[in-house]
Write a structure and sequence with these properties.
This protein is α+β, with helices and mostly antiparallel strands and 430 residues long. The protein folds into two domains: 261 residues, Transposase Inhibitor Protein From Tn5, Chain A, domain 1; 81 residues, no CATH class. It contains 13 helices and ten strands. Helix 10 crosses helix 12, helix 11 crosses helix 13 and helix 12 crosses helix 13. The longest helix has 23 residues.
């Protein structure tokens, strides 16, 4: 999937019917389970995380499939309206010092079986979809055991009291954006308490480009931070801690550009924050959360196009989505390798035959001047990424805008055609 930049069975089979049949049999095999495939997500990541501070970012994305009333394929409802598909919950590991992607950690891939009749507040946590935030964090404790420190990062949906009470451990932290105004142990509200914290600093930060219609921009933010003690909400399990001590870091934008909603982040974390620089570090770590949105973008319309798959059953689509998410993480590593931060070998994503083709292509796409030479270590992932980006239309100049996922997708498609020709170079046609 990485080499072809697609999940389409026919394209992956390369026109070979035997390959197509094997592909289908693999997905249909009852011994190939989603659970086993999910376990494989973290194998390489566990080794890469050794002796690092890892940011373990988790989020959920809906994958919509075109269906009709007579052809639902066993898919459940997602989103709003008559939309059917599946959900992918993934945790992505990043190096806290560099932001480089280390790979997937764990997650969940599922489709809803139908409406739930028992109301949300009457169900145990284990019977709710929200339990995925806790179980995935638990998986991180296993996969990232060799890391020096782990910080689990997520958006507002993961702001669950049970997570604050159950997940943290020595050198295992949580950083989450607040979803609701909570009651504190002293009776005050969380929002009012944060607003009363003294303004600590004001800085201008660069916000990431989140998509083709959301360009990056700068924002001037005012910083406040302090300690808060959350009170266990009514209705929560009585075996949870009655209160949890956390740090609230709040940044607010006062003069956004016209037509732009002002940024306002309330971030809760188990990290001790005792200085202005430490508070800004929390903001910087949370800002890296957008990278997992890049993962889902690669998985869907702007990359592997998972939602276009015509596979006939939900059971097989769930397996396909699990495999495709792993492939999307590898492509993300390739995208990040473009600036030379990655020390991984190119063999992480390319076969030995394709490596030979990359050598030949590199000689063709390099220019005559030093500025147009491939600047990366030969046969490294960064070296391969530079070649693929050139094939995708990037001009190779450091002053130009860096290539993104779409450029890499186009470059991978072009390279695949070249690699096929390379494999046929010694074939004698009578």
């Amino acid at each position: 999937m990485v080499a072809h930049a697609t999940v389409c069975a026919r394209r992956l089979a390369g026109g070979c019917r035997a390959q197509l049949v094997r592909y289908g049999r693999f997905l249909a095999n009852p011994n190939v389970t989603v659970a086993a495939l999910l376990d494989g997500w973290g194998e390489q990541t566990a080794r890469a995380a050794t002796r690092r501070h890892v940011l373990a970012i988790q989020d959920t994305s809906e994958v919509h499939f075109r269906t009709t009333e007579g052809r639902r394929r066993g898919l459940g409802e997602v989103g709003h309206g008559n939309i059917h598909g599946l959900l992918v919950h993934a945790m992505l590991a990043l190096d806290a010092a560099t932001g480089s992607c280390l790979g997937l950690v764990g997650g969940r891939v599922w489709t809803r079986s139908g409406p739930v009749k028992v109301t949300h507040n009457r169900r145990a946590l284990a019977d709710k979809e929200s339990e995925r935030w806790l179980t995935t964090a638990g998986r991180a404790k296993e996969v990232l055991a060799a890391a020096t420190m782990v910080t689990v990062i997520a958006d507002r949906e993961s702001d669950l009291y049970a997570e604050w009470a159950m997940v943290p451990a020595p050198n295992f932290h949580i950083l989450t954006r607040v979803m609701q105004d909570r009651r504190l142990a002293n009776g005050a509200g969380l929002y009012a308490t944060g607003a009363n914290f003294q303004e600590a600093d004001t800085r201008t930060i660069v916000l990431p480009r989140r998509g083709p219609h959301e360009p990056g921009r700068t924002a001037r933010l005012t910083l406040r931070f302090g300690t808060v003690v959350l009170k266990r909400p009514r209705g929560s399990a009585r075996d949870l801690l009655p209160s949890v001590r956390l740090t609230l870091v709040e940044v607010a934008e006062h003069d956004p550009p016209a037509g732009i909603e002002p940024l306002h982040w309330r971030l809760l974390t188990t990290h001790d924050v005792t200085s202005v620089d430490a508070a800004w570090q929390i903001v910087a770590w949370y800002k890296l959360r957008w990278i997992i949105e890049q993962l889902f973008r690669i998985l869907k319309k702007h990359g592997l196009q998972l939602e276009d798959s015509q596979i006939a059953s939900a059971e097989r689509l769930l397996k396909l989505a699990t495999i495709a998410t792993k492939a999307a993480a590898l492509i993300l590593q390739l995208v990040q390798a473009r600036d030379g931060r990655s020390a991984e070998p190119a063999s992480l994503a390319f076969t030995q035959e394709e490596m030979a083709a990359l050598e030949a292509v590199n000689a063709q796409v390099e220019g005559k001047t030093e500025k147009q030479k491939n600047p990366h270590t030969r046969r490294g992932l960064a070296w391969a990424a530079w070649i693929i980006a050139r094939l995708g239309g990037w001009d190779g100049y450091c002053s130009s805008r860096p290539p993104g996922p779409i450029t890499f997708k186009h470059g991978l498609e072009y390279f695949r055609a070249l690699a096929t020709g390379w494999q046929l170079r010694n074939v004698c046609i009578p």
